[in-house]
Amino acid sequence: MIRAGRPARALGMLVLAYALLCAMMFVLQRRLQYLPDASPMNPAAVGLTSVAQQTLATPDGERIVVWWSPPAGEREPVYLYLHGNGANLHARAERLGALVRSGAGLMAVSWRGYGGSSGSPTESGLLADARTAYAELRRRAPTRPVVLFGESLGTTVAVMLAAEVDAAALVLDSSFDSALALAQRSYPWLPVTWLLQDTFRADLAAPRVRAPVFQAHCRDDPVSPIEHAVALRELLAAAVPMAVIERRCHVPSLLDFRAAMETFVAQTLR
């Protein structure tokens, strides 16, 4: 009988350890990709006294929370706000308040599994939530221009939604081409293409987007490097020059790009 030598046994142990690591990453991936704060929310508790918290039913049986504020004037647009992968709408109170105070309407979506919403987040689930909110927004404000506002992971959903529906404009804060591309960059030693379930391929949807697009991005973004926003921009037919915040950050303050964004929206809706 021929016994396996030490090098062969060591190689076998390494292969087994790598396979176990891949299995662990596959099982735990959504815990790494989504960081929800499921705590109950109240817009009045964060100073948004004119904003109503309401619940919408999705086609797949979940109930999602939205914050709703109708437009103040007859010509004001309505923003559909799609947030990122962490915390909940309370963490976006400052920027949501700024949008409301501008006179625009607002519907901000709390993803399934996040503050007050049932279910657990997945790519298909977030798309269902965004479609549900868009349909309800259209029902409430059928003649108003809709501006899709995506933040971080929400930018990929905003791009995919914009490829399907009628939107007057698209605002992307800290955008990237796909979660797959970011994962391949962060984990080059893993077979990410095989492992990742929620790939958020905004790059595949981008060529179908016809709405004008505004992007804001930090020059040194440790989460979604600016090269990924540039890669997405090259696929968008009507993207204006990117507003670059010259510092290290991810999801900058709205103050960093609000003036440029509002000028873009005003010119687009003129």
How does this structure look, described?
The protein is of the alpha/beta class. The protein has helices spanning 6-33, 93-101, 123-140, 153-162, 179-186, 192-195, 202-205, 226-233, 258-269, and strands at residues 35-36, 52-57, 63-69, 78-82, 86-87, 105-110, 146-151, 169-173, 213-220, 243-248. The protein has an 8-stranded mixed β-sheet, sandwiched between helices. A two-stranded parallel sheet has the order 1-5.
Question: What's this model, at a glance?
Answer:
Helix content is 37%, strand content 20%. It is of the alpha/beta class. Helix 4 (153-162) links the parallel strand 7 and strand 8.
What are the key terms here?
single chain; 270 residues; alpha/beta; two-stranded parallel ribbon; 10 strands; globular
Q: Mind sketching the topology for me?
A:
Elements: H1 6-33, E1 35-36, E2 52-57, E3 63-69, E4 78-82, E5 86-87, H2 93-101, E6 105-110, H3 123-140, E7 146-151, H4 153-162, E8 169-173, H5 179-186, H6 192-195, H7 202-205, E9 213-220, H8 226-233, E10 243-248, H9 258-269
Parallel strand pairs: 1-5, 4-6, 4-7, 7-8, 8-9, 9-10
Antiparallel strand pairs: 2-3, 3-6
Shape: globular
Major sheet description: 8 strands, mixed
Which CATH architecture of the largest domain?
3-Layer(aba) Sandwich
Q: For this structure, what is the CATH homologous superfamily of the largest domain?
A: Alpha/Beta hydrolase fold, catalytic domain
> What is the ordering of alpha helices and beta strands?
HEEEEEHEHEHEHHHEHEH
Number of domains: 2
The strand order across the widest sheet is 2-3-6-4-7-8-9-10
Q: Number of DSSP helices? A: 9
CATH class of the largest domain: Alpha Beta
- The average pLDDT value, as a whole number, equals 94
The whole-angstrom Rg is 21 Å
Number of strands: 10
The residue fraction in helices comes out at: 25-40%
CATH level 3 topology of the largest domain: Rossmann fold
Summing up helix and strand content along with how strands pair, one would put the structural category as alpha/beta
CA-CA gap between termini: 84 Å
Query: Uncertain regions: pLDDT < 50 for 5+ in a row?
Result: none
Proportion of strand residues: 15-25%
